[in-house]
Amino acid sequence: MTRPNPCGDRGQTLPLYIWLTGILLFVAFAFFVFAQAASARNGAQSAADAAALAAAQDSRDELMTGLQEAIGHDDDWLDWLHGNGFQGAGATAAAERLAAANDSTVQGGAVPTTVNGYPGYRVAIETRYTVGESIIPGTETQHARAEATAVIEPRCTFASDADPKKAVELDCDGRFVDIDPQDFRSDDLPDASVLFSVHLAE
Prior knowledge:
By secondary structure, the protein is of the alpha+beta class. The chain is 40% helix and 27% strand.
């Protein structure tokens, strides 16, 4: 009678074990590369969101300055509340500052756009960092890119027959603000966020 050869069984199992180990290692490296790429994309999107919001907030500040200067001196001061009176000269610089703070650069500046009738900015960024070295060639030089759009939305309404030369009551999403151009002080204006909402476009 021939006895079983345990060494022979081990010899057959060893190549299978090596093969399975190789597959598991490859899968682990693939997941690591995916995680690297996802992390880079998330970082890029966060940078783009911050840059777009910064551009829109800069123009909101411009709107507030223009409104403050117009009340009592310009009969068209109510037009500023529609959110269309800004030039946006500082929008790109504001976006670039926030992008740099997130280790990214703005591509093409803050581009004026309109979303649902509201003014805003579209900003595209590229990360200064790369995805990093991996088993996939080229990732060590690949930068993540993303873009975002932020919108400036007016929050206040007023009577259609409002006289800009007289006191006007603004309804800012349920918060009422009285502006009297004949007796106006700069601190009569509430915070910019009361008059204009700045948010990312959906």
